[in-house]
């Protein structure tokens, strides 16, 4: 594609065919053939110059990022290669700005970043030779390749400078110097390339030094002088344009050459100071200086160099003596930090100041021809250190160095001087006073502190003024940097630019509005914290600042001869610095508006401005600036978080100036806003900002809204495409129009805002929750007000359902994908998480209404065949109904969860409503999808997603049962389908556990009965057993399952006993369950005996204790059944339950006085009697009431035992503690008051036998006889109380049954108890009942003794006959027990 380049000396070899004879590079023929048409039609070097003329036509259009240049030689002179078509550069396209780049329309520059204070832009003009390497994708390794040689210009060491006064940039390598108009608006500017004679032999040698020279009287273009540091060779071109023209014509060097004579061995030039119009100053590595002039006394080009001679006091020697002596002393040798020349008011006179790194300043006044005089020689080190220490900066004085300095401009306008923090010297026009701004540093290899210090020199004295610490940059200076840091102070001296190798510090030197703090700092000459920012370049090997310069406002620039307005000079109103950045090109850092620095609200570096730079400019991969990871955070996490939220909102609402608010492509605009939001969170993550959860959720919600809004816009275009011609109203456009004006930004037609849809998507995306909810409102109003016909409403419904369902689902998907990026966690209390935009009250409400409207619409028109309706849209609505239902349920769940963590009472109340609605609708609405629309799979999927296990169980169990019926009917493959469904249910048992298994068994039990539960065989996890055991009401099934399926006799016994002892209400069932439980317990004990373990004794003790309790319960049941048997004959003729109660009360009811209080006892008795007749298991206290209040026939003692004795047995079997004591006292009180002890106590005229019969007929005697008789069998049982011990029971409080009764009932019952107590007390006090108690007890004991003696004698006679029978009976019992087990 590119032509080959001549190896050595053929100037045009690469432009001609290889078959032609090569002509010599010099001679008349060469001059004739290559004579240009006119002098002004010179051919500058560009990529077009080297295009092969024999190539195909498309190869002439060379892009600026693929350029081949001529070869560059390190070790000798080489003429430029001239193409046969000298103006070919006109076919080269200008570099186009990439998508997203901000182009300054005035000069074609690309904005790299901008703030309220400054703008950084990349200028378009750059020589093709420099650009080619930075944009090349493949680096050739063959040295003979032209691209390799061209790329060497960029990859080799280089440096340069920007000469704004001439409008040219200068770049120098070991072999070439390039000069071009850096302000040109074309990407391939007119470039002047100079091959340097006598280049360095070593790549490590210092680069040549060069500077532009003011134009001569015969030219408008500047000249160029280049000094070879090591060899001392000097070349001067009087005009860059004439030099290039002559080179083109004659193919030979046209510059004036000479050399520095008298250089020491190893000495080299380190700096070339342009002191025009006085001349130039050369600074050597040894500290020597020399004066350089490029014109003779007649103004003709001529080079002369003179070393400085003589001492500092030798004024006759001029500059040749004084400066050399000053800088060649041992203390300063090789220690020159910088030397600069100041503008003077007199032609041919300049002030020269040199600074050493250790803090010494020397000043001379230099005249044309080399004459000079010294005006300063001072050591400012200690004074500067002290001034910096007064700023409270923590510095190390021994590390002090001067890096660079700049002259403070003279003649600054008063409005700027008034706001300057410089001393009064800024107002001085005295030529004897030199006003300097020094850049000094302190620190070490890893951390360095910088400061700007004001110093004035006058009449051999100095004064240190303002100190301005640099706080935003502390990176040490690289020793291998191509150029030393520079400080620039352009007019009007309000902003300083400090240029490092990969960073630029913009520091304000303007005063802040007066405050007490600023006044105090002003008194100690310390600058308060004003604007300061750092512009960082990427830390890459091939990216560094290799040259710089300043630009001053044109209107207030100096009026010297060198500053005449020229064609290439950049005209600006604000100061700037221009950088030559290797790997990038020319970059300008310009103050946006210098007048803002003298306003009441000067620019500030804010967290938001830093985020804006990173988001809107860091988003481009090819931006050479870096916005993250280089500096420590200068703002708190809260400040950054608040700024991020504000910026995020501005992006979503298009309120930022960095995003166009009237885009041509709405989709591209919205995607760009999404990219900005993603860049924002990525930048925050790189900075590792500690953001709270509220901030993170707000950022994520904004990103979600932007993402969903983009999808909605695409749907809008899709809807419009689906509609017919002329129909441009979709539900989206209608929503944008009809949203309440208070809920959107109203467009202003007066200024051309005539598209409400685009206007909404530009300005109101942050209100997306309103937009999504309003879809239903459009349907409702259109339906109610008949705003559209039936087909139109059908399509609106289709669109509304599509937007609502998929928009919210896209939001959830985006949230799930980005949750980790945004660092959001599950909501927690006190986190301050904002209301989820996709689950607001208005969205949940309108989604529910939309779902129900879909039900109504489908139910009305699904089966009706209306020819005007598009039934495909109805099918789509039905198909999207599950997704819409899903989003409705999700919104309910999210709002309920969020509201539960909120402090607001109203919000928590509505959250409870949403929670209840979620529980209800997650069952009803999911089940309706299957029941009404046959969407079984969708319903099952939703039930699984929302863990609505009752719906899930209903769907699966119903399907299982229906397939079972088909299998029973022997339908084809039905058995396989039934078995497969059973396996699916079993799989879900394993997956979801009891949460699903229990509802499934409940539905089986409800729909198919007990057999469906017991016959289900796919339960491999034992959930059936867990289900049955977890339901007390299913205990009768549970124990069967324990015996039949689980073979767990022990648990079956536990279940039966728990059922019989605690929950069973029917006395017969209770007896059976307890008996079976006892039998199972005995069987388990037998099994334990067969396999004994170390806990066997403990198990036996528990079993024995359980059996004892069972025996007690069985005894209570026997007593209740015996009582029932006594009452049964009295109700034999009853025709119904009511008659049974009435007859029983008449026959056995207590004889109670006719008063309200005593009637309460009758009510208690009747309630217990009703339960007895219904065969309910009575509680012990109710059974005791029946036994103690009931009237039984006298024979009952023989048939069932004494009723009071039975009551005492019930109390001893079922009660404990104080309750047993109180109940026993109650029983004896009722026993004692049963008889008339007044009559018994009247023994007058009674024989003993009569008295004994009277005592024997009392209830007390019968009860005591039974007690004493039982005591013979069980010595622990002797619950006998004297009458006086029975007094007072339940006269202050009642038993636990009546704790919840109302006070009236309780007080009445206590009064009834007190009446019993009064009656008993009367018998005790007036009729000697306590004494009679003793007598009755003694007689009972005697009677029992006599009875036992008679039984013993009777048994003794028949004992021998019964021994054999007893043995046989025992064997029979054992066998029967074994059979039952």
Automatic annotation (TrEMBL):
GO MF term set: structural constituent of nuclear pore
GO CC list: nuclear pore outer ring
Ranges where the Nucleoporin Nup133/Nup155-like N-terminal domain occurs: 113-588
Region feature (Disordered): 1-44, 1355-1381
Domain of life: Eukaryota
Keyword Transport listed: yes
One Pfam family in the UniProt entry: Nucleoporin_C
GO biological process: poly(A)+ mRNA export from nucleus; protein import into nucleus; transcription-dependent tethering of RNA polymerase II gene DNA at nuclear periphery
Subcellular compartments: Nucleus envelope
Basic and acidic residues composition-biased segments: 1372-1381
Gene3D superfamilies: 1.20.58.1380, YVTN repeat-like/Quinoprotein amine dehydrogenase
Assigned keywords, A-Z: mRNA transport, Nucleus, Protein transport, Translocation, Transport
Residue ranges constituting the Nucleoporin Nup133/Nup155-like C-terminal domain according to the UniProt record: 699-1335
InterPro entries recorded: Nucleoporin_Nup133/Nup155_C (IPR007187), Nucleoporin_Nup133/Nup155_N (IPR014908), Nup133-like (IPR037624), WD40/YVTN_repeat-like_dom_sf (IPR015943)
Record family assignment: Belongs to the nucleoporin Nup133 family.
Full protein name: Nucleoporin Nup133/Nup155-like N-terminal domain-containing protein
